[in-house]
Design a protein that fits this description.
single chain; mainly alpha; minor pseudopilin epsh fold; three-stranded antiparallel β-sheet; 8 helices; about 45% helix; binds manganese (II) ion
Length: about 200
């Protein structure tokens, strides 16, 4: 049985970037729905008792979609912090830290160039899906677009950071302005958490 993760911040903590209303639907309704669907589909499937990541690597169809969406949202919701919290200044220059900061500059030239490419790939993904920053086995960073419930673990990559481009992630707050929503997310990324995942 999988359970809904608890959010590591208050429901209104990410405002104005993500409203309490969006967060309430996204976490309490959409993610809860994926958890319920997966729990209902698991008995007799052969995937009972496996870790979520293993299910995502091995399953297809509805089990893959629901397990993938749980894994994706668990990573998504735990990568944010309130603007202005310790380590973040709540502004657009909320910056990467540690070894991942150095790797971003080495590969992309600057944090700004990395962010522009990441947002462009999220904005340019047709339909619903996710844009990901991952690391390969050598620690090289990779940006990928994943449609639907896709997660880069299926390509042997370690997922570090993701922006959800399903409309349910932003439509109440930004309507059709997906690029504006994606740009605003930089101010609430918890770069200490991304560094922790990178160095794990
Ligand atoms: Mn979502």
């Amino acid at each position: 049985m999988f359970t809904l993760i608890s959010l590591p911040y208050a429901p209104d903590a990410l405002e104005p970037v993500i409203s309490a209303q969006t967060l309430g639907f996204h976490h309490g309704k959409h993610l809860q729905g994926y958890v319920n669907n997966l729990n209902a589909a698991l008995p007799g499937s052969g995937f009972e008792g496996l870790e979520l990541e293993e299910i995502v690597k091995k399953a297809s169809g509805g089990i893959f979609n629901n397990a993938g969406q749980i894994l994706n949202h668990n990573l998504y919701f735990t990568q944010f912090r309130a603007p202005g919290q310790a380590g973040g200044d709540g502004k657009a220059d909320n910056a990467p830290v540690g070894t991942i900061a150095a790797q971003i500059v080495k590969q992309f030239g600057s944090v700004e160039a990395f962010q522009a490419e990441f947002v462009a790939k999220g904005a340019g993904l047709f339909g619903s899906g996710w844009v990901w920053l991952s690391a390969d086995e050598k620690g090289e960073l990779v940006i990928t677009q994943e449609p639907g419930a896709g997660n880069p673990v299926t390509k042997g990559l370690k997922p570090l950071l993701t922006f959800d481009v399903w409309e349910h992630a932003y439509y109440l707050d930004y309507q059709n302005r997906r690029p504006d929503h994606l740009k605003a997310l930089w101010s609430i990324v918890n770069w200490e958490e991304i560094e922790r995942r990178y160095t794990l």
